[in-house]
Write a structure and sequence with these properties.
257 residues, single chain, alpha+beta, two-stranded antiparallel sheet, globular
Length: 257
């Protein structure tokens, strides 16, 4: 692959500073040395790259729209059945991951370089595609406000972990379910809002607004805050990709199917 696109578009999250692979590697090393164990890079084509480490191994993930879309993360099929903690997210949450779902830190850093320079996951590593999309409480709150669902927006900020997992599974079905009818208006934000309303109220319905209203542009600090309340990664891997979907919900959205 040509290096003509090296560094094109990738920026340190929350800044306008564009980086190439070599600088990204230095930034990761400096971040880890300073005790900041998670770092994000964003791309204007609505995708992002994250690395979180415990100092020995790291989870490196290439995402679609931050926190929403299905993504891929580098995995190590030869790592065995062990598990390690100490993966401190940028919101302070201390996670544990199976070793097989992470790679050695040095390999993860090289994977960051490759993605930044080439725009695709490093083919020298194994990559796992997530089966269930992942949203956050902060992002779903914003989606619900945009569709006029203020009460559910307040609820989702403090919903139970299992309820957040079911929101992810239901939204996943709305977007990718095998019997979901083609619907050009079913975007990520609408799917997450519909899923949250269903999980809170226990019955499917349309949203208060058919078209989402324009929301104010987030500041860098607000963008960071919107990442708060992520679903439990390990539980997502263990659950059905359409966790939370009921027969009533399917019938509402695909009557007669």
């Amino acid at each position: 692959m040509s290096n003509a696109s090296v560094g094109h578009g990738w920026r340190v999250s929350g800044t306008e500073h564009e980086v190439a692979g070599d600088e990204a590697v230095l930034l990761v090393a400096e971040s880890v040395a300073a005790g900041q164990l998670m770092i994000w890079f964003d791309h204007p084509e609505d995708k992002s790259l994250s690395l979180v480490t415990n100092g020995r191994r790291a989870m490196v993930t290439v995402w679609g729209r931050r926190g929403y879309d299905e993504g891929v993360n580098a995995v190590d099929p030869d790592a065995g059945d062990g598990e390690q903690g100490g993966y401190v997210l940028d919101n302070g949450q201390d996670d544990s991951y199976p070793d097989a779902s992470t790679v050695e830190l040095e390999k993860a850093i090289e994977a960051v370089r490759y993605v930044i320079d080439q725009g695709v996951p490093d083919p020298r590593l194994h990559w796992h595609c997530w089966l269930m999309l992942a949203t956050t409480r902060g992002m779903t709150n914003r989606d619900l406000l945009a569709y006029g669902e203020d009460e559910t927006a307040r609820w989702v900020e403090h919903c139970a972990d299992d309820e957040l997992l079911r929101i992810c599974g239901v939204a996943n079905w709305l977007l990718y379910g095998p019997t979901t009818r083609s619907d050009s208006s079913m975007n990520l934000a609408r799917a997450c809002a519909l899923a949250a309303v269903f999980i809170r109220e226990g019955r499917p319905r349309q949203l208060a607004r058919a078209v989402r209203k324009s929301m104010p542009q987030l500041t860098p600090a607000q963008t960071e805050a919107s990442r708060s309340g992520s679903p439990n990664y390990q539980q997502q891997q263990e659950l059905d990709q359409y966790y939370g979907v009921t027969a009533e919900f399917q019938e509402f959205w695909t009557p007669g199917v």
